[in-house]
Amino acid sequence: MSDRDKDIEILAPRHRFLVLQRQVGRPAFTDTDRAILGGLLHHLPMNKLRDLLLLVRPDTILRWHRNLLKQRHAVTCTPKRRGRVRALVLRLARENSSWGYRRLHGERAALGIKVAASTVWEILKEHGIPPVPERQSTAWADFLRSQAGARLACDFFEVRTLTGARLYVFGVIEHSTRRIRILGATAHPTTQWVVQLGRNLVMDLEDAGSSRARFLIRDRDSKFRAAFDALLADAGLKVVTTGIQMPRMNCIMERWIQTCRRELLDRTLIWNQSHPLHALREFESFYNEHRPHRNLKQALDE
Q1: What pLDDT was estimated at residue 77?
Q2: Is residue 248 part of a domain?
Q3: DSSP string for residues in 104-166
Q4: Is the dihedral of CA 86, 91, 92, 98 positive or negative?
Q5: I need a surface site. Which of 52, 86, 207, 256 has the fewest CB within 10 A?
Q6: Judging by DSSP bridges, how do beta strands 238-241 and 215-218 pair with one another?
Q7: So what's the pLDDT on residue 300?
């Protein structure tokens, strides 16, 4: 093709382009159009771009090229890697409640992971993790959950017989495994009887061997006397009393009592004083060995 024919082939489309430019309003570009134009024309200097007949301004072409580079850079950070980065930030934040997003960013940099501090802040905000001042305040439920392996809880609950007699049952539960112990039932809980139940509890824990209990949570019931607390203190168990009219501070034991009533006592006719203890022993065995626990991810007590 001669130079004259090439000039004619170039001038004809340019003239058609001028005609369309006078008639068409704002043109619509697809992502492919932007990628092609941005990739081809960004090498030209600005003065050359201004001399070309374009449907958009030269600055728009350069902006398309910058966006194209950003997308290409984002592809290099695969979703799998972004997932690992997010998981690491969340783990560090949960295990170190006193670290703010800048400290978390610094720890990641020390591990050789380059990411902006604003990205760490956005990850924390997206997952509802509050700033450090709010994160450092520990709720009672969080405290119990973190110290579950060293805690027991106990309480009395009432059982009524068919004759209307009132019986008091004493139970103890382990926070970590949800293992329940029914230690006794009586119509007249005396100080000597409660202290003897304390001795039975201490011996049971010693026989188990694997218990790491160091604290016992109880309410302020008048049935508990100083002799009961002193006996447990000699065995290495510190008694922690709940607040006045605050059953949620002993929520795990209260929840078990509710379960016991719903699954056993509300469906059973109690004949005499020995009957409830026998039924509760059966329920204790079922609860510890067969019943799954949702709070332990449906795990059975071992």
Answers
A1: 47
A2: yes
A3: HHHHHHHTT----HHHHHHHHHHTTPPPHHHHSS--HHHHHHHTGGGEEEEEEEEEE-TT--E
A4: positive
A5: 207
A6: parallel
A7: 45
Total domains, the chain: 3
Q: Are residues 152 and 131 in the same domain?
A: no
- Closest Cα partner for 89 from 123, 118, 65? 123
What φ, ψ does residue 185 adopt, rounded to 5°?
Answer: -145, 135
What percent of the residues of the chain are helix, what percent strand, and what percent coil, each to the nearest 5?
A: 60, 10, 30
Query: Splitting the chain (302 residues) into consecutive groups of 10 residues, what average pLDDT does each group show?
Result: 77 69 67 73 71 68 74 53 76 78 76 77 82 62 64 92 91 89 92 93 83 86 90 91 87 92 90 88 89 60 42
Residue 146, sorted as left (phi over 0), alpha (psi -120 to 50) or beta, turns out to be alpha
The predicted structure's pLDDT at residue 301:
42
**Same domain assignment for residues 27 and 131:** no
Is there a single domain that holds both residue 147 and residue 290?
A: yes
d(CA 111, CA 172): 46
| Residues 61 and 187 occupy one common structural domain | no
Residue 271 sits in the same domain as residue 149: yes
Residue 186: beta bridge partners?
A: 168
Q: Write down the pLDDT at residue 24.
A: 63
